[in-house]
Amino acid sequence: MNQPVMSRQQEKALLLEIKQGNAYALESLMMRYEERVFQFILRLVNSRELAEEITQDVFVKIWEGREHLGKIDSIGAWMYTLGKNKAINLLKELTARAAREEYYAKDRDWSIGGEIESEEKGDIFSLVDEAVAQMPEKCQQIFILKRDEGLSNEEIADRYNLSIHTVKNQLKKSYAILRKSIVEQTLFLILYSFLSNR
Predict the structure, then answer these.
(1) What is the spatial distance between Cα 152 and Cα 175, in angstroms, rounded to a whole number?
(2) The overall pTM is greater than 0.90
(3) If you classify domain 104-196 with CATH, what class do you get?
(4) Domain ranges for the chain
(5) Coil, strand, or helix at residue 84?
(6) 9/15 Cα distance (integer angstroms)
(7) 116 closest CA partner among 92, 133, 99
């Protein structure tokens, strides 16, 4: 259970003890802030497992960087900022990984890493389809042939009478569009979720 928020003076005294290597002081800080930080991150990632992991990372970061705690004006604001940044970075990483795996999916029933549930896969595929719809026509055609028909670069080049170099460039462009679109939409959903739950 959260304890009352400390005064600035109490906070600085506690941070000084942590800076000096007092593990009990860190425990005290966790008792006061852990649940608050967890709930804040949970609103961002909408996953208790991820929120717990990121919350623990926040306090590990505090302990590992305790020598620099004297530079922090407000530990609460600093933890929320650190947690938000970690959440965004993790979601970017997960989204990019899912997108990379989607490039090589041969059909819509392919299991992404065996870790993503059917509903979540549907969300990812929807984001991918929206991104594909935004691609220039030739770029879109080449990407779809690669993804849905599993054609090699050489086969695509033959079909459209293009050079291998052109096909590779178009695929590279399509992957960049896909990655940018998915990350932007994910960050928008994070921000919307955060603001709507305030």
Answers:
(1) 16
(2) no
(3) mainly alpha
(4) 8-90, 104-196
(5) helix
(6) 10
(7) 99
Place of tokens 């670069």: 153
**Residues making up the chain, counted from first to last:** 198
Would you put residue 150 in left (φ > 0), alpha (ψ -120 to 50) or beta?
A: left
pLDDT bucket at 169, cuts 50 / 70 / 90: confident
CA 57 – CA 165 distance, rounded (Å): 44
Tokens 């929206």 locate to 130
What CATH number belongs to 8-90? 1.10.1740.10
What digits encode the pLDDT tens for the residues 17-32?
Answer: 888 888 888 888 888 8
Residue 88 is encoded by which pair of tokens? 């965004």
Q: Report whether 41 contacts 77 (CB < 8 A).
A: no
Which residue bears the tokens 């000096």? 20
Query: How many Cβ atoms are within 10 Å of 179's Cβ, its own excluded?
Result: 17
Own/partner contacts of 178-185, CB < 8 Å, gap of 24 or more, are 178/99, 178/103, 178/128, 178/131, 178/132, 178/135, 178/143, 179/96, 179/99, 181/127, 181/130, 181/131, 181/134, 182/95, 182/96, 182/99, 182/127, 182/128, 182/131, 183/92, 183/95, 183/96, 185/127, 185/130
